[in-house]
Amino acid sequence: MKKLHKPLPSTRPEDIFEKCVSGYRDKQKVTALLQCKCMVGCDSELYDRVVPTRLEEYKQSSLPTNIDSKMISKVYTEKFAKENSPGRQYYNAIMEQAERNICPICGIRMVKTLDHYLPKSKFPTLSVTPSNLIPSCRDCNMDKRDDAAYDSKNTPVHLYFDDIPNEPWLQVTVGDNLEILYYIACPDTWDVGLRSRIEKHLDFYDLHELYSSHANGEVANSIHMWKKTIMQSSPEVLKLALIDECESSELNNMNSWKSALYRGLVANFDKVKKYIFGLCVTEQVDSNT
Ligand SMILES: [Zn+2]
């Protein structure tokens, strides 16, 4: 995951809401929805103040009796996310926050949509609030559960607001056959809420399995090269190459799946060496029979 700049900082969410609502032809609907403009403003302001560290303090406004919450959340799909809708310019501006079009939530797949940090089904007044909308791939958007608890320990990392120190917290275990599994090891000195949000982040978006599948593919693709390096040079040369790969990856993102993988391979280099030597012995036996 990668921290992002909060999008559209000088545009008021209530003005975005008004612009979107103005796209409806039904004037009665426009008048009804505009009753909620102030609520969108107040709720967005409170959200920005408390998310994610004091999320327990977030209380959304009560809607007027003639407004159904679905009517507000539909403003997002009909007049914000839809091509050529009045809010689409804001949608596009938020999508552009993602570096190289890579989903900042998983760090692997392509950005295709926006994910509501607090879901619009439960928090309709935040449906078009830019700081509640995170660029994401389709899988990350769909995997998040709408039935979760919403407090500072049970929500994922907020990529606009959370500051994660640039220290390693994602680690791997390396099996005897170089199978890779991920785990989280945040320093004990870190804030308990932040540590919990990091755990939830990986759980919510099913990232443990995703990272393992990428890491295991990377290992499978690299075995031949690692073997060649050991046979033609030495284990020490291979270790230096793994350290270089780790450093380069960590400079880009300290806690990407790749940084954690190479950190683990360097730390468990004896296992890498033993596995490669084992392969060489097996191949030798096969070639002699
Ligand atoms: Zn993703």
Question: Could you give a short description of this structure?
Answer:
By secondary structure, the chain is mostly helical. It has helices at 13-21, 27-34, 37-50, 69-79, 88-95, 138-143, 192-204, 207-232, 235-252, 257-267, 269-288; strands at residues 113-116, 133-136, 170-174, 180-184.
Describe this structure in words.
The mean pLDDT is 94. The longest helix has 26 residues, at 207-232. The N and C termini lie far apart (50 Å). A two-stranded antiparallel sheet has the order 1-2. It has a two-stranded antiparallel sheet with strand order 3-4. Helix 8 packs antiparallel against helix 9. It has 2 domains: 13-143, no CATH class; 170-288, no CATH class. It has helices at residues 13-21, 27-34, 37-50, 69-79, 88-95, 138-143, 192-204, 207-232, 235-252, 257-267, 269-288, and strands at 113-116, 133-136, 170-174, 180-184. The relative contact order is 0.11. The chain is built from 11 helices and 4 strands. By secondary structure, the protein is mainly alpha-helical. The structure holds zinc ion (ZN).
Question: Characteristics of this structure?
Answer:
single chain; 289 residues; mainly alpha; 2 domains; two-stranded antiparallel sheet; 50% helix; elongated; binds zinc ion
